[in-house]
Design a protein that fits this description.
The complex is a heterodimer.
Chain A (H helix, E strand, L loop, with lengths): L1 E7 L4 H16 L3 E7 L3 H5 L4 E4 L7 H7 L5 E3 L2 H5 L3 H12 L2
Parallel strand pairs in A: 1-2, 1-3, 3-4
Helix pairs in contact in A: 1-5
Chain B lengths: L1 H28 L1 H11 L2 H14 L12 H25 L5 H16 L4 H15 L3 E2 L4 E2 L9 H20 L12 H31 L3 H16 L2 H16 L4 H25 L12 H4 L2 H15 L3 H15 L4 H6 L6 H23 L16 H9 L2 H38 L1
Antiparallel strand pairs in B: 1-2
């Protein structure tokens, strides 16, 4: 079970992506637990995550979040994929990074 | 074609990283400002509860209204029920917005201490104690606390004291000024002693400072801060300043950076204070003073424009990209979540959307501001979750149906402004798609 954490300003717009990603993951048979949170909670929610993804609108926080979540990869979500709420594309990237 | 697109995105990202990211980082990470912003964010649920209690207890019934139709008789029935139960109904309001400074001092001190990597609870309690000592709210002769002295007007005093107390605690820790306990003392026993010295210093220092200020100005520290912040609040709440703030917000979003987050370090303390002051005025039956209050510059800002943009696309656009984004984006947009449009259309680095967004933000806010300052429209005095759809939010936050009418008028105006820009952009997208198809 992979734990995927999505962060944006209030956790609202990334929560839209969560459902799409979960569906993509289920279709591909990847067991994972995906959740969206406000960026202010990065430290708590990122502690036991396998990967942390930032919404592009808060990507200026990247360096800070990397510091707060040193144990897992942290990166910003591709803007085009985010805009289209393309869960499959974001999932593909997650699999690349995690090597699954 | 695809390679061109990636290289554009790469260029864009490189540009952002070089120029805009550092600016964004600096603003959002300024530790005092971000502590105030995050500390105030914690209060939103409290202000929502307080606002609804206030609304229940004091329904918006104009004086002299008669039960001429079913809606009016409903309001009048509500009013007499509320009058009979107001003592109970007002408690949640009085204990939230009525004493909001208590929550402000706690929220800001906690967040600021966390920013420094210090213990949250200890700092929060120290700041609360110091604040109560200097608030002038405690009347020892009768053993009571005067709630009015912990209300909206004293929020700025609460912010300043929270920051100073934590700053002093941080200084004590950094300089290792503490009572040293032998190593054999268990850590849980030693911990309270570590903060004791700085707590004593804080209480003594601020009590003396408050006494000095009182003897010099006739009023305490809290009133002094209030007087100092008053001109700032007035200036920030003026039309040109709000238009500038909205211009900056739209511009940050143009670069794909969360504009609201960027300006909220300055904006949210002022709009929260304005909102709480308006509610106090409403309850005291006085005219409300602040137009720049609550979510006003979001509700009458670009939130209208993004939704209007999607409607234009549904009616007039033919390109595959615009139409498929609109399908994904329309429902979230009704609830004020616009990231799908922003990154999907995209409006990021898109001049065709940037120009009408700017024009619309100017028209939208100026219209509301001028009508509200002329006394034609109600002002914002109730907090709502930010996902409440625009027209409903305009109505519920002001309890004035005319603001909802203005919302729909502006929605149509925004569509007219958007029409030429969006259709031009759409033609370009169609051309690109046709070229891609030919390849």
């Amino acid at each position: 079970m992979k734990k995927i954490v999505l962060l944006c300003a209030a956790g609202m717009s990334t929560s839209l992506l969560v459902t799409k990603m979960q569906k993509a993951a289920d279709d591909e048979g990847v067991a994972c637990d995906i959740n969206a949170y406000p960026v202010a909670q990065a430290k708590e929610v990122g502690a036991d995550a396998d990967i942390v993804l930032l919404g592009p609108q808060v990507r200026f926080n990247l360096a800070k979040i990397k510091e707060q979540c040193p144990n897992c990869p942290v990166e910003a979500i591709d803007m085009a994929a985010y805009g289209m709420m393309d869960g499959a594309k974001v999932m593909k990237r997650v699999k690349e990074v995690l090597g699954i | 074609m695809t390679s061109e697109k990636t290289s554009f995105m790469e260029k864009f990202q490189a540009f952002m990283e070089k120029y805009l990211v550092p600016v964004g980082m600096k603003i959002s990470e300024q530790r005092h400002l971000s502590a105030i912003r995050d500390g105030m964010t914690v209060l939103i649920p409290l202000t929502i509860v307080g606002g609804f209690a206030c609304l229940l207890a004091v329904p918006p019934v104009p004086a002299g209204m008669e039960a001429t139709n079913i809606f009016y008789s409903f309001l009048l029935a509500w009013q007499s029920w509320a009058a009979a139960n107001s003592a109970i109904l007002m408690i949640p309001y009085q204990l939230t917005i009525g004493v909001i400074s208590i929550y402000v001092v706690c929220g800001v001190a906690y967040r600021f201490a966390k920013n420094y990597g210090m213990d949250g609870i200890n700092n929060m309690l120290s700041a609360l104690l110091v604040y109560l000592c200097v608030s002038g709210a405690v009347d020892l002769s009768t053993g009571t606390i005067v709630m009015a002295r912990l209300g909206a007007g004293y929020m700025f005093g609460a912010m300043v004291i929270a920051l100073l107390v934590v700053e002093i605690n941080h200084f004590f820790i950094a300089k290792k000024i503490a009572i040293k306990m032998p190593a054999s003392v268990p850590p849980n026993v030693a911990a309270p002693f570590n903060v004791l010295l700085s707590l004593v210093f804080n209480v003594v220092f601020f009590t003396v400072l408050n006494a000095v200020v009182t003897s010099m100005t006739g009023a305490g520290l809290n009133d002094l801060v209030y007087t100092l912040f008053q001109p700032l609040m007035k200036a920030t709440g003026s039309l040109p300043s709000i238009l500038l703030i909205n211009f900056l917000m739209t511009t940050f979003w143009f670069f794909g950076i969360h504009g609201g987050n960027m300006v909220s370090v300055v904006v949210s303390p002022l709009t929260t204070a304005g909102l709480a002051a308006n509610m106090e005025a409403y309850l005291a039956n006085k005219p409300m003073e602040y137009i720049f209050a609550g979510a006003v510059n979001s509700v009458f800002g670009n939130w209208i424009t993004y939704t209007a943009m999607l409607v234009i696309i549904f009616f007039f656009a033919k390109s595959h990209q615009a139409r498929s984004v609109a399908k994904v984006a329309i429902v979230p947009s009704c609830f004020n979540i616009n990231e799908p449009s922003i990154f999907g259309l995209p409006t990021v680095l898109n001049v065709y959307t940037y120009v009408p967004l700017l024009i619309c933000s100017l028209i939208n806010f100026s219209s509301y501001y001028l009508l509200a300052s002329a006394g034609i429209l109600g002002k914002f005095y109730i907090t709502l979750p930010f996902t409440v759809p625009g027209p409903l939010a305009a109505f519920l936050a002001t309890m004035d149906w005319k603001t909802m009418v203005l919302w729909f008028v502006l929605f149509v105006v925004d569509m007219c402004v958007l029409y030429p820009f969006i259709t031009t952009y759409d033609k370009q997208l169609q051309k690109n798609e046709a070229a891609e198809g030919n390849n």
